[in-house]
Amino acid sequence: MNSCVVYGKTMAAWSVGIAMLLSSCTTGVRTALSEKELLGKQIFFDESLSEPAGQSCGTCHEPSKGFADKYGRITSEGAVQGLFSNRNAMTCSYVAYVPALYYDDEDETYVGGLFWDGRVNSLEEQAGQPFINPLEMGNKDSRMVVGKFRRTAYYPDFVRLYGEIASDDSLFSKILDALAAYERSVEVNPYTSKYDAYLEGKCKLTKQEKKGLALFKEKGMCAECHVLEKDERAGRVLFTDHTYDNLGIPSNPDNPFFHVSPPYNTVGRDTMDLGLGAFLGDSAEFGKFRVPTLRNIALTAPYGHNGYFKTLEEIVHFYNVRDVEDYPAPEYAATVNREELGNLGLSPEEEAAIVAFMQALTDGYR
């Protein structure tokens, strides 16, 4: 897989003066990005906008890693050395189609919202938080971000697109607007996996991949949450229903956040992540996290909200045998899903077939 990442001064030197330019994305496919999308891409990979400088959005959302953490870490280290966030970095690919958080009365479940816990409802809101999170890009406030942004080499391109903006708050909102435009672009959402080609009749799945697809639909029960129907917003299969679940994942003893000092972590190893329930203040939702897309899942290790599983094989095996093998206790036990995983009866060969199918969801096949 080829990478389109260009950092620092190289990226800042790009010009977005042409209305449509061809840009090589991670899959090697030539894609047309608009001026706004190209501006958003420059911001996305600009390492000068953190405090201290050295971290960009792309550090935790690297294209060659399926837009997940550049280094494949359990949780990502922030711009300040030694400060780690408490959750594994989700891919930002295909999240443009996640709806705003709402409660589905028919299915009696929450749906949508960005981040693992659904705490924001738009790409623009999502893009703004890392800039001013002390455990991520480390800026004191949005004014600090704007001050750095006005000094970038590509700021004149921003002015040409948006005009001169005196208000710091308004300028920050336009920065987020450009970032969201890039995250909605074909470069971040290319639909170029083998499975896409298969759906279009342009290739055939191997015998093992076809077996994995059948198991994914039925015996493995994966498609109960990672649905195979077209998403209404995307018009494509996203392999998620955007709902929330507690899979019974144990606390990860290797989570570097446990060693982060107060005021960011006041209880050390005893930290318990309550997910959606903490955001809502609702104990019925404690321990539940949003079901992520499986697109590019083979690239985005480790897995789970706390990065407990190092490989696809490990997490598929956990889904299969959680309740019949000796795993540590769930991080939060009361709301664990006991119906759709834990004792599926899959053989080792069947587990391997499901993994093979999920590997066919990686962009760059065509």
Task: Please provide a written account of the structure.
It comes from Parabacteroides acidifaciens. The chain crosses the membrane at residues 12-33. This is Cytochrome B6. This protein is mostly helical and 366 residues long. It has one domain: Cytochrome c-like domain (Cytochrome Bc1 Complex, Chain D, domain 2). The protein is built from twelve helices and six strands. The chain has helices at 8-12, 35-44, 57-60, 123-131, 142-150, 155-162, 168-183, 194-199, 207-217, 275-280, 312-321, 348-359; strands spanning 20-24, 30-34, 102-104, 109-111, 244-245, 289-290. A hairpin with a 4-residue loop joins strand 3 (102-104) and strand 4 (109-111). The longest helix has 16 residues, at 168-183. The protein is globular, with a radius of gyration of 21 Å. The chain starts with 7 loop residues before the first helix and ends in a 7-residue tail after the last helix. The relative contact order is 0.16.
